[in-house]
Amino acid sequence: MNSRNYGETLSYWYLRLNGFFPLPNFVVHQGNRITRTADCDFLAIRFPHVFEEIGGQGEDWDSEFFETIGIPYDQNIIALIVEVKTGYERNPNSLVISLSGSFSKERLSYGIKRFGFWSPEKVDEIVNNHLEKSPSFHDNNSGIYVAKLLISTYYPKSSKMPPCHFLGLDYVDHFIRERMNYYRDRKQPDRYFFPDDLIQYIIWRG
Prior knowledge:
By secondary structure, the protein is α/β, with parallel strands linked by helices. The protein is built from eight helices and six strands.
């Protein structure tokens, strides 16, 4: 965790605190359809019946955001391909170019195949027919949702932006602080069990 920037660390804990299992820095290797090796900030998966006594009950989830983007928590598996970007306010074109690569159909196919939901051929079909042009896809047969999520300090209003859901980093920071404060009597004395300095500081500071 300490090797990441603050945006990636906050994003990691937002996903964790919403019941996801995040896989950080997923390497997309150069190959037949990938021209150069790259990485995805997070692949994250969530199962429908997540539960913990402390911080893992129904009212703890950010269900409002996910329902707003059309991905309900109940009875669904949710898989996210997440990119985290900070500091692009002065150069929005660079962000658009970066995301066009991160959410290219080749990298999407590579990442979704790692989840193992469908055959490689089915994944390519889903990406080509749905996810390349839409921020998310719902498989009616399995109930699985797959979505592209940008967590960033900035969202450029550009016609060239690849379609993706957006979550502001300020919002992510607020959500984490609210959750930690709500369970402060348990989280504060246990803060050193959390593996990075930033989240320990947030728990201590409130």
